[in-house]
Amino acid sequence: MMRVIYLSHPQVAIDPAVPVPDWGLSPLGRARTEAFATLSVLSRVSRIVASRERKAIETAAIIADAHGLSVEIRDDLHENDRSATGFLPPDEFEATADRFFAAPHTSIRGWERAADAQRRIVVAVSAILDEPPEDAGVTLFVGHGGVGTLLLCHCAGHAIGRQHDQSGGGGNVFVFEHPPFRLVSPWQSMEDAGSRRAF
Fold it and tell me: For the chain, N or C: smaller number of CB within 10 Å?
């Protein structure tokens, strides 16, 4: 059984003219990640796997550079597919996200269904973790809040629900074990993860 960390990227530079998967980190998101990367709780991390979205890659690269590691970029770790609507103003996005979690077997405004996104992220993470490890260190996944919450629900045996979602702004971590999937520590901010030594 291995210990695994899932990290959601922190704050991004929002640009309605740019496709959401191509958004990068904001100065605040970058600063938070740089501080997180220095924490001793990451000393056991030996593998970093990131979503193909730019904000996740930038987050992972900061941590990898601080620890002399490389970043593996994998498909199927991306955020739930929201391309049908593209950018939504914050209030409209939050209302749509509420519906996404509340009706996991329904496509909300053309979004990928929550149940399908959960199945995708669980299968992808499981396949990656089933690969022969190079060493016995901790694996760090860098991804997104929405599919991260769906993965957390699976690990904890919860029904899909937004009450299990991360706090606003991103930059949160949870810890689980595999196999089988078992939640060890629920979402907590990058900053709290360092002070509580949950890893």
Answer: N
Every domain of the chain and the residues it spans: 7-137+147-165+187-196
Distance between CA atoms of residues 178 and 158, nearest Å: 17
Mean pLDDT of 167-171: 90
Residues 6 or more apart whose Cβ sits within 8 Å of residue 44: 3, 137, 138, 199
At 40 the pLDDT is 86
Q: DSSP letter string over 16-61?
A: TTS-GGG--B-HHHHHHHHHHHT-GGGTTEEEEEEESSHHHHHHHH
Give the integer Cα–Cα distance in Å for 35 and 164.
Answer: 26
CATH class, domain 7-137+147-165+187-196, is: alpha beta
Q: Cβ(149)–Cβ(165) under 8 Å?
A: yes
* CA–CA dist 37, 65 (Å, integer): 9
Report the predicted TM-score, pTM, of the whole model to 2 decimal places.
0.96
Query: Helices 114-129 and 145-156, interaxial angle, to 10°?
Result: 80
Task: Please state, in angstroms and rounded to a whole number, the distance separating the CA atoms of residues 122 and 178.
Answer: 11
The helix or strand, by DSSP H or E, that contains position 95, with its residue range, turns out to be: helix 90-102
Model pLDDT for residues 88-134, shown as the tens digit of each residue = 999 999 999 999 999 999 999 999 999 999 999 999 999 999 998 76
Joined tokens for residue 175: 């810890």
